[in-house]
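Q: Convert this sequence to structure tokens.
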Amino acid sequence: MKTHDLTALLEAMFHRSKEMILFVDQKGEIIHLNAQAEKTLDLSDYDRDQFVNICGHCLGMADGDDPDCTNCFLMSREKMTFQVYLRTRSGEKAAYIANFQQIDPKNHISVFTLNPLSELMKQQEFEHQKLLTQRIIQAQEDERKRISRDLHDGVTQELLNVLLEMRLYKYSTDRTELDRKIKDSEETLSHLLDYVRNISVELRPASLDDLGIEAALRTHFKWMQRQYGILVDFRTNLNKKRYRAEVETVVYRVIQEAVFNAVKYSGIDEIMVNLQESASHSGMQLYLEIKDEGAGFLMEDGPRGSGLGLFGMHERINSVDGVLNINSEPGVGTKVEGYIPVEERVL
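A:
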């Protein structure tokens, strides 16, 4: 390893760093501060020939009207990481993530480093959006695989069988046997038609666009009763009202996902779904509730499965400025509640 002047390197880091670095004593007097700190902090009220007190800038370690000095970091001998509010040159109250550590116990000198909280939040938001995008893409790919597998195993194979049978019709000389084969083929094609229709409904029901949420949900619940023997007690006061397309889609998908989760994990054969329009302090809202009295789960353990279903419900609700709450208890059941601000669509 090459030998360099450590003092020169440390001085270069101190002066060129994009984070604020200050050296302070036990009384809070600033002994040295780097260019970033001098550029950011409001020093106009202080004599630069004298020490500057950090308390003149600090607005407390808590977000309140008055600084909270009861647990001042200047009194700590241990390394601390915390959020602090400082007064800037623009006169604003800015939040920072601070690190404070005593580096010279004999003279009570500590180093105080500050990074704007807004920059960290931007980075965290970027990472969150990146992770969200990755999970959405993966969920889409998993769903495409499932649909592709259903089409290949359920539709393609059956159509191939019907095609082979029909090619043999021309060799049949027994009219009674031919009629039987034709009837079997008709039944197979009818079954395939229902199968494809079900896949189409899963992807996006036409009734959602044509008739609205209420009609689409009623159709979906009837289909679920036929498919799974599940009874859905559906209650609503919408009376065929229509809303923005994105709101209707979100409500339908969230209820659909919550009901499917109840079918898979609750262990019971009756689910309650409540969809109501009501007044709130800020206007009209849609309230949705999906409740079962089944197995439930511990909230701290999280749901069974990948968790992408619940994650997707939260993201869908957030996309229309709504709120989603999920509560569950083992042996008691699970309740999903959502609130979405709405305006009725004029047709």
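The radius of gyration is 32 Å.
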